[in-house]
Design goal:
alpha+beta; about 230 residues; globular; five-stranded mixed beta sheet; 12 strands; 2 domains; four-stranded mixed beta sheet; Cathepsin D, subunit A, domain 1
């Protein structure tokens, strides 16, 4: 476990999520937002995806989980986290940037630039290592660091860096298949994913009455992160 390695302590701001009671470190040096494996948001299987501490130590991961954080700022903050073998949850800088959150170290506050609300935070002396998606000793580290989106989970909350927009135009009746109930765990995951995609604007319910009364097959595949 990376947390067992000798790491010099550093002062970091810490905020609390009131939904899960997890205390998140705000770490601008981290490449990815993570939650600890000991929390209840865990897939029991260790995935093939690996993270790295600043000293190159490998950190095991156990899938991904999308959480809706309540930081006491009167709005929800939904984000996708990697479940990793670390001691404390970590929020990286792009989470703050996406939601327009400002860190005031001197006043120990997290400020919502959108609503001008703020919440008290705390400064803790942490030994939690900075989490990286690529080992700094890797021969292609400098190249991969220029394209960080390649080595981290896709987060649809992040705006794309291009103006390309894809759409699929369909005609005629929809594809039909005999109803085959999914196993309970896969059905739950599929329902969560479709709800999330609707919220993110990736998909929306059809207005076609023929589609609403038809059955379309759904196939779930095991992801690199150990989830469906």
């Amino acid at each position: 476990m990376a947390g067992a390695c000798a790491v010099q302590p550093s002062h970091r701001l810490c905020v609390t999520d009131y939904n899960t009671r997890l205390r998140f470190l705000i770490d601008t040096g981290a490449n990815i937002s993570v939650i600890p494996v000991k929390s209840k948001y865990i897939n029991n299987e260790c995935s093939d995806y690996k993270l790295y501490a600043a000293n190159g130590t490998e950190i095991k991961t156990y899938g991904i989980r999308t959480l809706e954080l309540n930081l006491g700022l009167r709005r929800a903050f939904k984000w996708t986290f990697v479940i990793a073998d670390i001691r404390q949850p970590i929020l990286k800088a792009d989470f703050l940037n996406y939601y327009g959150l400002l860190v005031d170290i001197k006043s120990k506050k997290l400020i919502d630039n959108l609503t001008n609300l703020n919440v008290n935070a705390s400064i803790i002396n942490s030994r939690e290592p900075a989490v990286k998606t690529v080992d700094e000793k890797h021969p292609y580290h400098s190249l991969l660091s220029r394209y960080p989106e390649i080595t981290k989970p896709i987060n649809f909350k992040e705006l794309p860096k291009h103006n390309v927009c894809h759409h699929i135009e369909t005609r005629g009746p929809p594809i039909f298949a005999r109803a085959r109930p999914l196993p309970p765990d896969r059905y739950k995951k599929a329902k969560e994913e479709f709800s999330l995609m609707q919220e993110l604007g990736i998909c929306r319910p059809s207005k076609n009455s023929r589609i609403q009364t038809s059955v379309t097959p759904v196939t779930l595949l095991l992801h690199l992160f150990g989830t469906f």
